[in-house]
Specification:
Layout (H helix, E strand, L loop, with lengths): L8 H8 L3 H8 L4 E10 H13 L3 E3 L11 E9 H11 L6 H12 L8 E7 L11 H14 L3 E5 L12 H17 L5 E5 L3 H9 L4 E4 L8 H6 L4 E5 L17 H18 L5 E4 L8 H9 L11 E3 L5 H23 L9 H9 L1 H4 L8 H17 L4 E4 L2 H14 L8
Parallel strand pairs: 4-5, 4-11, 5-6, 6-7, 7-8, 8-9, 9-10, 10-11
Antiparallel strand pairs: 1-3, 2-3
InterPro entries: DHP_synth-like (IPR045031), DHP_synth_dom (IPR006390), Dihydropteroate_synth-like_sf (IPR011005), Pterin-binding_dom (IPR000489)
Organism: Helicobacter trogontum
Catalytic activity: (7,8-dihydropterin-6-yl)methyl diphosphate + 4-aminobenzoate = 7,8-dihydropteroate + diphosphate
Length: 422
């Protein structure tokens, strides 16, 4: 008899070949889900604590809650799917707002539609782009290259949305895009085309030329509603942003990052659906009015937004927060190297000459003194998008199409993406 520790419980269960019904029941016991509840009424907290324990779940409460000094407390509820489903049934009969919480939890636990995993290749026709700029001829060549690689979507824009970028009029966009639009009209391909614009006129003409996605970073769907109503096949990417590209890095304050973005999406989705615009893709807006830690939090907590039951897009490709993480890590490494190098060499197997040389050459080898290379940022981008895919992203917007296609193949081969995303 031998024992093997497994990392993928669902795959291991399937290998044992259980009964299908039994598999579905047992599967609900394999994953712990957690939900933070803000400002829970004291009475509700006390009831929920007991109900959670009696159903195999748990409610984490503040240490001073037992003294009942406040009327409301923030709490953390966690448990398996099975335990939470039992708890929800009991909560639906309880007072103090627990019925409403039960309904919200029920939505989170509902099986989500599988939108698959897609790669969106980026083409910029703007001199102010933070990444490589293409002129019209180069952009057309890149389109054919992306199609040959097998990309799912090609996103084309002629106005930069990098931090500090100024507004570009539709007239200028259209001048830059005209040759590209003419070429796309000739194409017979299953690849989708997305227009990256906040200008209504640019979006309108792009749709007329065969584009089926409007990627609008403005966060103001009101400007695109008429186009969407007239073209029901067109999808709209709703991006979270505060301010504009010119001002957004001064607008990184939130009461609660995840819940504030959730509220933004709730309001904008309701507006779009009221106007019969139902093909919606959500983009949490990595880098748009978010600092480094906020971007990290969004990648880690992306699953939260699955409850909207809409495709999720992530665009972290080559963004500055990744370079800042690398530089921050390099600072720590450099600090540790200097500490070791300046420590009394008698405590180490290091001769005096080697020790002196190491100290003198620290500045020349200090990685912080050099900006992160494109290769470094590519590696960071791939890791960020791998995490995003694992956490529920359906579309990743990328500059490096070939590398992402290869990464997705590896993920599928290793069954990393076999993790159930709720």
């Amino acid at each position: 008899m031998r024992i093997e520790r497994v990392s993928n419980v669902n795959e291991a269960m399937r290998s044992v070949e259980p009964d299908n019904i039994g598999y579905k029941i047992m599967k609900e016991k394999t994953q712990i889900l957690a939900f933070k509840i803000e400002a829970l009424q004291l009475q509700a907290m006390q009831i929920l604590k007991q109900d959670a324990l009696s159903n195999g779940a748990e409610l984490v409460t503040p240490k001073d809650a037992v003294l009942c000094k406040k009327t409301h407390y923030d709490c953390l509820l966690f448990g398996t799917q099975k335990a939470l489903k039992l708890l929800i049934s009991k909560m639906q009969m309880q007072p103090f707002g627990l019925k409403a919480i039960a309904q919200d939890l029920k939505v989170f636990l509902q099986t989500q539609k599988d939108y698959g995993k897609k790669i969106m290749g980026i083409i910029n026709v703007d001199s102010n782009s933070f990444y490589k700029e293409f002129n019209a001829n180069e952009a057309i060549k890149q389109i054919y290259h992306y199609i040959e690689l097998g990309v799912d979507i090609i996103d084309i824009g002629a106005a930069s949305s990098r931090p500090g970028a100024n507004y570009i009029e539709s007239k200028i966009e259209l001048e830059r895009l005209a040759p590209i639009f003419d070429e796309i009209k000739k194409l017979d391909t299953t690849t989708q085309f997305s227009i990256d614009t906040y200008n209504e006129e640019t979006a309108k003409i792009a749709v007329e030329c065969g584009f089926s996605i409007i990627n609008d970073v403005s966060g103001r769907p009101e400007t695109m509603v008429q186009i969407l109503q007239k073209n029901s096949h067109v999808s709209y990417i709703l991006t979270h942003i505060q301010g504009t590209p010119l001002t957004m890095q001064e607008c990184c304050k939130y009461e609660n990052l995840i819940l504030d973005i959730d509220t933004f999406f709730t309001q904008k989705i309701a507006y779009l659906k009221e106007h019969d615009c139902n093909n919606i893709i959500l983009d949490v807006g990595i880098g748009f009015a978010k600092d480094v830690q906020q971007n990290i939090a969004l990648l880690n907590q992306l699953k939260h937004f699955k409850h909207f039951k809409l495709p999720l897009l992530i665009g972290a490709s080559h963004k500055s927060f990744l370079a800042k993480i690398l530089e921050s890590s390099s600072t720590t490494i450099s600090r540790n190297i200097r500490h070791d190098a300046t420590t009394d060499y008698s405590d180490h197997n290091l001769n005096p000459a080697t020790h002196s040389s190491l100290v003198q050459n620290l500045d020349s080898i200090n990685p912080v003194s050099k900006s992160s290379t494109s290769k470094d940022i590519l590696s960071a981008t791939l890791i960020a998008h791998c995490i995003a895919w694992q956490n529920g992203a359906n579309i990743v917007r990328v500059h490096d199409v070939k590398e992402h296609i290869e990464m997705l193949k590896i993920m599928e081969a290793l069954r990393v993406n076999d993790i159930d995303v709720l």
